[in-house]
C-alpha cells in the first residue's frame, strides 16, 4: 500500500501490486475464464496469499456448505492485506480513503463485506447507513426495538409505557411510508392477514406491485435477513393493532399518506450501482429477482462484481499467450488426476503427492494451523464428501509487528513479509 496524496485532512491510499503479484493476478484471471476451480487451487500452490484466489475459493467452500473453511479463507485474505498496510493507514481514524475505482482496492472491500456477512450469521450485526429514516430496514427495525424494550419486565412501568407508545408511533409511520412491506413480511412469517387488510387498496397486492423496483430491492434485502425477528406472537399482535390504525388514517384522508406516496416515487426511481452490487453479493433471491434487466443480462464476476464505469487502472492485462493458457489447463488436468476418486494405485500415489503440495502451502504460513489450507476442500474432491474438522485457533495468531508494518509499505507480491 502506498500513500497517494494528503489534502484537507484526508489521506488517499491505494494497494499496489508488485510485478510478481501482477503475474499471479493474470494467472488468476485465466483460471477464472477457464471455469475450472482446480486452476485456482493450483495457483494457490505458488501464491498461497493471493487475495482474489482466496476469496474465490472461499465462495466455492461456501457453496459446498463448508462455512468454517470459507470463513478461514476470508480471514487469511484480510490478514494478507493487513500485512501490506501503510504505517499511516488506519481504519478507525476516519481520515483514510481507498478509491473503489482502483481494482487493487476492491478486493479489500469485498473481503470486508464477506467478513461482515460471516459475523452477521454469528449474531454480531452492526448498523452503518446514512439517511436511515429513508430506508425500510431502519424504518421497521427501530420501532421493533422499542417494542421489544417495552416487553422487558425489569423496566419501570412508565418506561415500558413510553417505549410502547414510541414503538407504535414509529411503526405506523413505517407502514405509511412503506406499505409494500406488510404482506411479504406476513408471508415470510407464515401468517395470513384478515380480509380487511388483504383486500384494502393500501395494503393489498397492489401496494407491492406499484412500488418502484429500487424500493422492492431494499425491502427484499431487509425481509430476507430480518423476517424471523417478527415471528413472536406478541410482536404480531402489536403489528396487527397498528396496521388497523394506519387503515383508519388512510380511510380518513390523512395528508401524510399522500405525502409518503409522493416521496416513494421521487426517492426510489432507480437504485445506484453500489446497491445493485450489494444485492448480488447478498444472494437473496427475491432481491436479485428485482434487479433491472441491464444488470441481470451482463456477466458478473465474483471477484469483482459490477465494477465502476470509471475504473482507474494502474496496469493493464497483457494479451493471452497460448503457452500460458496451456500451462493453466495442464495444471488443472494434473490436479484432476491427483484428486481422482479412482481406487487405482496411480490415483492413490498421486493423492499422496498432492498432500505433499498441501504441506508446501502450509510452510508458507506465518503461524501454525491445525490443518492445511485446502485440506477439507481436497478431502471433498477426493472422497466426494467429508466432514468439517475443528476450527483452528484463529483469534490467537500474533498480530503484525513493527517489521511487518514497515514491510507493509512495499508492494504486495502474494507472499507474506518475513517474520
The chain-level structural class is mainly alpha
How far apart the termini lie comes to 18 Å
Estimate the mean pLDDT confidence.
77
| Overall form | elongated
> What are the low-pLDDT stretches, counting only 5+ consecutive residues below 50?
328-411
Strand content: under 5%
Pfam family, one: Tcf25
InterPro entries: TCF25/Rqc1
Protein name: Transcription factor 25
Biased composition (Basic and acidic residues): 409-419
Protein traits:
Transcription factor 25, 419 residues, 58% helix, single chain, mainly alpha, TCF25/Rqc1
Helix/strand layout:
Elements: E1 2-7, E2 10-14, H1 19-33, H2 37-46, H3 51-63, H4 67-83, E3 96-98, H5 103-121, H6 136-150, H7 157-177, H8 182-188, H9 195-198, H10 205-210, H11 213-226, H12 233-251, H13 255-267, H14 273-282, H15 285-289, H16 293-296, H17 322-338, H18 345-363, H19 375-383, H20 402-407
Parallel strand pairs: 2-3
Antiparallel strand pairs: 1-2
Helix pairs in contact: 1-2, 2-3, 2-17, 3-4, 4-5, 6-7, 7-12
Could you give a quick summary of the protein structure above?
This protein has 419 residues and is mainly alpha-helical. It has helices spanning 19-33, 37-46, 51-63, 67-83, 103-121, 136-150, 157-177, 182-188, 195-198, 205-210, 213-226, 233-251, 255-267, 273-282, 285-289, 293-296, 322-338, 345-363, 375-383, 402-407; strands at 2-7, 10-14, 96-98. Helix 3 (51-63) packs antiparallel against helix 4.
